[in-house]
Write a structure and sequence with these properties.
The chain is built from 14 helices and 11 strands. By secondary structure, the chain is an alpha/beta fold. This is Transporter substrate-binding domain-containing protein.
C-alpha cells in the first residue's frame, strides 16, 4: 500500500489548479520548467504547526527532492513576522505558514511579498488566558488590566474582537506588545495580567501556569478574521512559479496526512525531546485537529480574506487598506 495520503477534494482542486497553471504558461510534460534555482529555503518555527510537522516527517522534503528541488530549512523563528523579514531580506524564500495579519502589515510597510497558499486550522484554539485566582474570569474583568499581545498579529486581533463583542472601549485595557518568547514569562511572573495567544503557546501556558480561558476563539467568536498563510517574494513567485506550485502541492499533501493521522501528527508536533507535556498533547489529540488548504485561486476564500482585512483596517489594527487580489502569487 502506498504511504502517501489520498488527496481530499480541496487538495485535488488545488493540485489541479497548479497543473492548469503550468499549461497556461505553455509548459508541456517534459518541457522546460519555470525556475531559476534548484533549491528552496523554507522557514520553520517551534510552534508545532503544519510546517514543523512537514519538516520533522520528511515526506515534503522527499517529494520536492523527487522533482529536483532541494529543501533548505531556515530557522527556528518564534513567530510569523521574522520569517516575513527573512523573505524580504533574501535569506529565505517562504514564510513559515503563519498569521495573515502581520503579513498584511509587512506588505503595507513596503515588503514585496505575495500570498502563495492559505490554511485554516480547525478547531480554532487561539485564546485570551489569565492565571487561576487572578480574578479575571470574563472579558469585563480585563478593564484596567494589562494584556500581552503581538503587534498587528493574531493576539492583538483577538483582544480587539473580544473587547468589541463585550462593548468595552479598548482604551480601558492596556495592550502590552510582546512577542511570544517574552510574553510567556511576563504572564508567569505577573508582569502582565493576561495573554492573547495561539496554539501551542497558549495551551502550554494554560497547563504550566495554571491558567484558564477568558475568551476562546472557537467558542466565543462567530467569525474568523485571521488565517494561516505562506508568502514568498513577488520576484521569486514570478521567476520560480514551478517551485511555488510544487511547494504548495507538498504542503497540501502534508495537510491531508496530518488530518488523517491525528495521533501521529500530534506526536511529531510535540517533538522529541518533547516541547510540551503529555497532557498538552492529549488535549490537542482530543480536538482531532484538521488542516484545510485553500489555493490563491479560491475566489470565495479570497473574498473572506478581503473582508477580514477591511475589518482590521476599520479597527486600526492595520494602518491602511489593502486589495487582496493584488497580493496573490500568479501561478
Amino acid at each position: 500500500m502506498s504511504s502517501f495520503p489520498t488527496l481530499s477534494r480541496r487538495s485535488f482542486l488545488a493540485t489541479s489548479a497548479a497543473a492548469s497553471g503550468a499549461l497556461g504558461l505553455g509548459l508541456k510534460p517534459g518541457g522546460a520548467l519555470a525556475r531559476n534555482t534548484d533549491k528552496v529555503r523554507l522557514t520553520f518555527g517551534p510552534s508545532g504547526g503544519l510546517t514543523l510537522i512537514a519538516k520533522e516527517r520528511g515526506a515534503l522534503e522527499k517529494s520536492l527532492g523527487d522533482q529536483g528541488i532541494k529543501v533548505e530549512w531556515v530557522g527556528p523563528f518564534p513567530n510569523h513576522a521574522p520569517t516575513l523579514q527573512a523573505v524580504t531580506g533574501g535569506s529565505a524564500d517562504f514564510s513559515f505558514g503563519g498569521s495573515t495579519t502581520p503579513a498584511f502589515a509587512a506588505i503595507i510597510a513596503g515588503s514585496p511579498l505575495v500570498f502563495t497558499q492559505f490554511l485554516i486550522y480547525r478547531p480554532r484554539t487561539t485564546a485570551i488566558i489569565a492565571k487561576d485566582g487572578s480574578g479575571i474570569d470574563k472579558v469585563e474583568d480585563l478593564v484596567g488590566k494589562s494584556v500581552a499581545v503581538n503587534r498587528s498579529g493574531l493576539g492583538e486581533f483577538l483582544l480587539v474582537a473580544a473587547l468589541e463583542k463585550h462593548g468595552i472601549d479598548r482604551s480601558k485595557v492596556k495592550f502590552v506588545y510582546l512577542n511570544p518568547p517574552d510574553a510567556a514569562p511576563a504572564l508567569a511572573s505577573g508582569k502582565v495580567d493576561a495573554w492573547s495567544m495561539w496554539s501551542p503557546g497558549v495551551d502550554i501556558a494554560r497547563y504550566e501556569y495554571k491558567a484558564h480561558n477568558v475568551f476562546l476563539e472557537e467558542r466565543d467568536l462567530d467569525f474568523q478574521i485571521d488565517f494561516t498563510t505562506w508568502l514568498t517574494s513577488r520576484n521569486f513567485a514570478t521567476e520560480n512559479s514551478d517551485i511555488v506550485r510544487a511547494v504548495n502541492a507538498a504542503f497540501s499533501a502534508e495537510a491531508d496526512w496530518a488530518s488523517a493521522h491525528p495521533e501521529d501528527a500530534e506526536k511529531i508536533a510535540q517533538g522529541a525531546p518533547p516541547r510540551y507535556a503529555d497532557p498538552v498533547r492529549e488535549g490537542f489529540l482530543s480536538l482531532k485537529r484538521r488542516y484545510e488548504i485553500y489555493p490563491v485561486t479560491d475566489e470565495a476564500f479570497v473574498g473572506r480574506l478581503q473582508k477580514a482585512a477591511d475589518w482590521l483596517v476599520e479597527r486600526k489594527v492595520l494602518p491602511e487598506q489593502v486589495t487582496v487580489k493584488e497580493l496573490l502569487a500568479q501561478i
